[in-house]
Amino acid sequence: MDAEKLSHFRNLLIQQLRQETEQVRTDQAAALELYDDGVKDSVDLSVQDLNKEIALRLGERSSKVVADIDQALLRIKEGSYGICARCGQPIDERRLEAVPTARYDAQCQSLIESANGDDDLPTL
User: Fold this and answer.
1) Pick the CATH number of 1-81 from 1.10.287.1080, 1.20.120.910, 1.10.101.10, 3.90.1170.20
2) pLDDT digits (tens, 9 = 90+) for 29-58
């Protein structure tokens, strides 16, 4: 992949990283607001616990997205971005436009998903 395309994908990833970082801040602020709002009865406490759990899961999801972006940026730096981590073939640029953090080409991703998310399949 040429330098101009790598720069394009790096910029896409950095933009996504900024968006996710802002989302994490928003989720954390919402979770803190839910922490103690003077709720008194058991129904309100149950709703409050559910809201905390949702905020926590959103934070976990955002953390995973940030980690995926960091890994993609590292692959750009190492020179392996756009190469399938399973088979070593180039990942189609249309796929990278849709999923800039993609580690696998479409065929390998399909195989991984059909194996119920087991991404420890042997490399070819």
Assistant:
1) 1.20.120.910
2) 766 666 555 656 777 777 777 777 777 777
